[in-house]
Amino acid sequence: MTISTERPPVAAIAALGLTQIIGYGSLYYSFSILAPDMARDLSWSSEWIFGALSAALLIGGLAAPLMGTWIDRFGAGRIMTSGSAIAAAALVACAFAQGKIAFVAALIGIEIASNLVQYGAAFALLVQIRPQVAQRSIAYLTLIAGFASTIFWPVTTALHAHLSWQNVYLIFAGLNLVVCLPIHAWLSRGVGQTRRRTGDEAARRVEPSLPPSVRRPAFILMVTGFALESFVNSALLVHMVPVMSALGLGAMAVVVGTLFGPSQVLSRLINMVFGESLSQVMLAIICAILLPTALVILIATAPSVPGALVFAVVFGLGSGLNSIVYGTLPLALFGSDGYGRRQGQIMSVRLVVSSMAPFALAFLMGYLGVSWSLSIAALLSTVAVGAFFAIMRLTRPVARPDTVPNPREA
Description:
Blueprint: H1 10-42, H2 46-74, H3 76-95, H4 100-117, H5 119-129, H6 134-145, H7 148-162, H8 165-198, H9 212-238, H10 240-246, H11 252-274, H12 280-301, H13 305-334, H14 339-368, H15 370-395
């Protein structure tokens, strides 16, 4: 296997890092802070407002495969440019929504825009810019974007202390329109100019590492593993406070939240420095193992405070690596051709599962209790580990009968 001597596109990664921070911060992380006032203005309960978000996530997930196809056809840069405009329009529509139906429609627009400007599209853009170094580029990008929650939770809180949620959304719409849209347009033009200037060399493909006969089962295994991880991650993050309270660790939920973000960034930094020698399948296995390990630690040690702290760090490490793996593993296994379409399919399954996960865990906790519910979550995440191990077996070359050594030979 030839090691590429190309350098990652530093300017593009830095610019995309800024748009990812704004994209995730304005379209995703701000919602939980603004939701109580949204519910009050719409005369909804908190459960209903988050139910509306889940419905929007579900519809956004169903639309993701089509958007992935567009990314391959029209280029990720153009799609992200349009996505920034749609994001701004959807945030404005949400701010001016006069009733529940208009609000939910605008929320669906926000989730569709998210598919066009967040990780799936950004990873595809990096693949289209320089496919040979896209794995490193994706790792660098996730390191920068990992600060989205760290930046936007306090920014949203500070703005909301002086402004209504509607005005906060209008400011965020301006950020998407004034900052993100020009950056995405510049990157879109840059891809075309670079390829025209350097010819085929800059646009050479990453070839699949799997033979055609095993690509379909490998893809099914990969999506299954990602879906199970998304289910457990989403359910735990939404229900962190009730889970901690039921285990006698109520006050630790805040501490877990403060450790989770830095642990995500730390895992990406460690991977960036030491992960070059690891295959992407092995990285996926390590990432998958961290999730059930974190759950077992929490179940076994509760209500121990040190145990909860270890859980938070291990859980954050696994979640941080997961963001890298779901961008790099499909590229390593299936190559750069059709990468946008595959990202759309993966994103669709992840979003659909994530939209249902909080309700599923709440149902399990209501009928089985927290410990048994967490045990089921640990079992599901262990199945994800098995799926990635099965992919590793598929990546190993099969020896032909005539090349099998004779056991009688010395």
